[in-house]
Amino acid sequence: MIKVASTALMAAFLLAACEPPPPARVVQECLDALEAKKYEQALQYTGPAIQELYSNRQDLVFYHRQMVKSTSFAVGAGEIVTPDRAHVDVRVRFDLRDETVIDWPLRMDLSLRKRWFIDDVWHMDDEGRPRRNALNAVGAMEY
Asked: What does the buried/exposed string (b/e) look like for 62-95 if buried means 16 or more CB atoms within 10 Å of the residue's CB?
């Protein structure tokens, strides 16, 4: 009986180890890399649209390196809305060298493709509803 219980426990640990990290942890790890200005590492957590934006907009990386004094994030718990879709609420704060502050409530949408990837980012309104797509705003220089 003890051997069966320990085998079942071991199987549960192995299954848990095979599970992808939860969406909020993926977002946290991505933002930790961004905060440390390790952009290539941060991109490992993103889907094709964000990777394309990054490769086409190197001026944004330059801006972050040169103009941002400090970056901080608050990551919410996240919510899995379907088996392969989730979103995570994030509050991002950029303290700029000219002493201005950018403080945005965002929602990151993730999809599961063997592991979770950040596919889209939304600016949120005061009621917590998506206001506009942040990737489109960045692409159009509307931030």
From this structure: eeeeeeeeebebebeebeeeeeeebbbbbebebe
- Kindly report the length of the chain: 143
Q: Report pLDDT digits (tens) over 123-132.
A: 999 898 999 9
User: Of 136, 127, 51, nearest to 89 (Cα)?
Assistant: 127
Write down the pTM of the prediction.
0.77
Spatial separation of the C-alpha atoms in residues 94 and 83, rounded to whole Å: 33
Per-residue pLDDT of 49-85, as tens digits, reads 888 888 877 777 787 778 888 889 999 989 999 999 9
**C-alpha gyration radius of the chain:** 18
Helix (H) or strand (E) holding 30: helix 23-35
**Domain 21-139 fold:** Nuclear Transport Factor 2; Chain: A, (3.10.450)
Domain boundaries, the chain: 21-139
